[in-house]
Task: inverse folding
C-alpha cells in the first residue's frame, strides 16, 4: 500500500501546469500572479516631504529667519527654486522644491513675520523621501508567483496595475454517492441519512481557493453513476466523489470511472482514516474517490486535494503546511497505519502546543468542527507524554 | 498618549452587539452562527453497519454455516429478524436488522452454498455504529458563537439546517484623502501619486470578513470631505479614512468629522508606525482616521480595525491573534514608542521562528507584501539576539 507522501507526490506529478488569465486584480486576494509586474515610474516620483514643515537648504546659515517664498501643499508643483536665506512652506507628500534638500518639521520652526526660524540646523536629506527610494521605473515590484496579499494589492495599485495575469481558480465538481443519501432539504426516510459530504466538500474547496460545483447525489447503479460522473468530468479541473470506493458489492465507482476513461493511479493509501482513497486522471482532470465517511473525506481533502488545488492555482508550495509542536495532553493510540487525529493549536509560553480533540479517529464530524490541525501518529504503539514534540498538518481555514 | 492595548479596549467597548440575520448557510464559511442548532433526530438514525459483510448474533454458536436470510444495501430497510443460525448480507451504512448485534467483515467470512462461515466469533457491537452515538435528537450540535468551518457545514447539513441566524458581515466604507492622489486607472501628473490605500484597505477588509465599499478619493477641502465622508457615514458600520489626520494645515479630517457629528474618542496612539490614528463614533458607526502612509495604515488595520470587524461579525475572540516566538535573526531598534515591524514565520525544529523583514519601519509597502506577522518591539533600546522569544501579532491572510 502507498505511503501518504508517495501518494501525494503521485497526485502532484499529475497536476497540469497552472493556467493564467488576465483579470482584474480587485477582489482577488489569495490568487497567484503569473507574470512579473514592474513599476511604471519611480516611487516616490519626486523627492517628497515626509512631514509638514519647511523645505530648506541644509547648507544655509540659519542665523536669521528664512524667508518663505512659496507654499507647496501635497499634489502641487513647486515653481520657485530655494535660494540662500529662503525656504518654502511644505506639507507631507508634496515635492521638495529645487535648491532645497531637507525639511524642518513645523514643530521645530517658529513663524517670525514673513519668515521662520528653526531650532536646529537640519541634516542633509532630513524628512525627505528620495525619488525612486521605494522603487525605480522598470523594476519588478511584484514577481511572478507572488500571492496577492492586501499589501501586494496596494503595491499593484501604486504602479497602476488594474489587470494582471492571475492563475485561474480550479473548478471542482462534487458528487456524493449512496442510495442511503437524501438532499439536505429533504427529511430522511427509514434507512436514509442526509448528504453531509457535498456541503462540507464545497466549503473545503472554497477555503482552498477552488470554485465548487455541487452535482448532488448519484444513486448506487452503474447508469446513475455513469450519467452523474460523466457530467462532473466534462466540466471540471477536479472531480471529488464521496463514497462508493471501498471493495463492497455496491462500491461501483472504480468500475464506472474506468468505463468513463479515467486511469486509476492508486487505490488505497496507508493511513487512518482515509485508506480507501482512489486517485485517477482523465486528460488533465484529476479525480479523487474519497471515502464516504465525512471525517475520512476531510482528512483526505487536507492531505491530497488541498495541495492539488493549490498547485493548480499556481502556488509554488502546494503544502500541506506542517510543523512540529509539543503536545498539550498525552496521546495513546495503537494502529497498523499512520493515524491523523483532529487537534487544536493552543498558545504556550513560547509558540503553540497542540491538543488532540476528543473522539479521535471515531467517525464523528462534530468533533472535527473546531479542529485547525491534524496530529500525525506513526503506525504501531504511539504513546506520547505532554510536551513531546509531534508532527502536525495545519488545516487552512478562513477564520 | 494612549497605549495600544488601551486604545483597542476603547474601540472594542464601542462595538455595538453583533446583528444576526437568518441566511442560507451555503458559502458562508468563516461566519459566526448566532443561535444553537440542535439535531432533529438521532445520528446515526438507526444502528448502522460500519463495514460490508454479514449482520450476525454475537451470541450464536458459529459452529456451522449461517443461513443468509436477507440482503440489506445502504438505504434499504431490513424486513426480517435474524434468528439463531441466521445472518443478513449487509453493506456499509445499512441498518442492522432486528436480532443481530454485530457485523462480520466480508474479508473474515467465506460463502458456503447458501450460507457463510466466519473466521472468528464477533464481539457484541462489532462494526456497529449505535443509533444516537454521534448525536441525539434535540442535542445542540453547533452552539451559538461557533465559526462555520467546513466540518460545521457538514454537521449542519446532517441535521437538515439549510438556513440559520448568522451574524451579518460588517459593511465598511473606505475613503482616501489627499490632493496628491489619483485613481489607480489614471496616469499621475506632476506632484501626484496613485491611491494605494483604497485597494489595500478593501483587500484587508475582505480578509477580515467585512464587505468593502470604496468611496474613492476626497479632495483636501472642507466641502469635498464633508460630501464624501457624509456619504460614507450614511451607509456603513465602519468608515475607514486614509490620510488627513495629522496636525498639518491640510489635515482637515478631524474638523470635518466633528461637523458631521462624529465624536472623537482618541487621536494618537503610542506606537510606531501609526501614531496619528484617530477613532470616533457616530451612533453605532465606528470611524477610523488612518495615517496616509500605507504601511502605517496597514499596521493600524491589524491592531484596531480587524479586531473591531471580528467583534462586529460576532467572534467571541476579536484578537488580534498573538504569540511568542523565537527570533530567526537579531534585531536592533531604538525608538521612543513601541514599534511594529513586518516579519515572516519560518519553520523551526520545534514550532516556528519569526524573521524580521528588511526595510523595517521605513514607509515601504512592497516590503510588507510577504509579511504574515508584526514583530512587537518595546520603546527604548531594543536589541535582541537570534533565539530570543519575542511577542508577535499574526496577520490574518486568506492564503
Result:
Amino acid at each position: 500500500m502507498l505511503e501518504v507522501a508517495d501518494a501525494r507526490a503521485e497526485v502532484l506529478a499529475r497536476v497540469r501546469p497552472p493556467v493564467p488569465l488576465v483579470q482584474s486584480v480587485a477582489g482577488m486576494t489569495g490568487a497567484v500572479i503569473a507574470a512579473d509586474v514592474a513599476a511604471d515610474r519611480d516611487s516616490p516620483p519626486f523627492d517628497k516631504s515626509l512631514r509638514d514643515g519647511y523645505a530648506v537648504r541644509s547648507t544655509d546659515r540659519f542665523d536669521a529667519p528664512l524667508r518663505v517664498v512659496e507654499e507647496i501643499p501635497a499634489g502641487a508643483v513647486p515653481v520657485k527654486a530655494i535660494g540662500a536665506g529662503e525656504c518654502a512652506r511644505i506639507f507631507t507628500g508634496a515635492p521638495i522644491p529645487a535648491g532645497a534638500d531637507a525639511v524642518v518639521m513645523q514643530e521645530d520652526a517658529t513663524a517670525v513675520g514673513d519668515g521662520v526660524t528653526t531650532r536646529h540646523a537640519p541634516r542633509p536629506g532630513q524628512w525627505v523621501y528620495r525619488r525612486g527610494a521605494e522603487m525605480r521605473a522598470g523594476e519588478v515590484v511584484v514577481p511572478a508567483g507572488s500571492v496577492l496579499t492586501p499589501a501586494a494589492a496596494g503595491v499593484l495599485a501604486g504602479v497602476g496595475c488594474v489587470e494582471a495575469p492571475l492563475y485561474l481558480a480550479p473548478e471542482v465538481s462534487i458528487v456524493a454517492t449512496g442510495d442511503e443519501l437524501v438532499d439536505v432539504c429533504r427529511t430522511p426516510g427509514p434507512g436514509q441519512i442526509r448528504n453531509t459530504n457535498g456541503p462540507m466538500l464545497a466549503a473545503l474547496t472554497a477555503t482552498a481557493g477552488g470554485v465548487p460545483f455541487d452535482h448532488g447525489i448519484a444513486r448506487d447503479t452503474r447508469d446513475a453513476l455513469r450519467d452523474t460522473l460523466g457530467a462532473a468530468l466534462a466540466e471540471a479541473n477536479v472531480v471529488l466523489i464521496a463514497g462508493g470506493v471501498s471493495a463492497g458489492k455496491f462500491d461501483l465507482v472504480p468500475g464506472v470511472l474506468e468505463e468513463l476513461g479515467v486511469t486509476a493511479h492508486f487505490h488505497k493509501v496507508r493511513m487512518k482514516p482515509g485508506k480507501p482513497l482512489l486517485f485517477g486522471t482523465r486528460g488533465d482532470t484529476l479525480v479523487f474517490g474519497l471515502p464516504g465517511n465525512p471525517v475520512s473525506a476531510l482528512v483526505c481533502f487536507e492531505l491530497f486535494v488541498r495541495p492539488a488545488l493549490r498547485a493548480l492555482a499556481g502556488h509554488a508550495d502546494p503544502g500541506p503546511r506542517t510543523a512540529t509542536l509539543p503536545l498539550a495532553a498525552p496521546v495513546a493510540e495503537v494502529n497498523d497505519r499512520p493515524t491523523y487525529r483532529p487537534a487544536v493549536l493552543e498558545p504556550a509560553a513560547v509558540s503553540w502546543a497542540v491538543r488532540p480533540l476528543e473522539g479521535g479517529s471515531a467517525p464523528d464530524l462534530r468533533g472535527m468542527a473546531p479542529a485547525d490541525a491534524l496530529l500525525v501518529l506513526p503506525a504501531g504503539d504511539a504513546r506520547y507524554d505532554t510536551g513531546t514534540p509531534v508532527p502536525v498538518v495545519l488545516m487552512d481555514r478562513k477564520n
Q: What stands out?
A: Chain A has a mean pLDDT of 94. The helical segments of chain A are 4-13, 150-158, 197-207, 222-234, 253-259, 294-312. DSSP finds six helices and 27 strands in chain A.
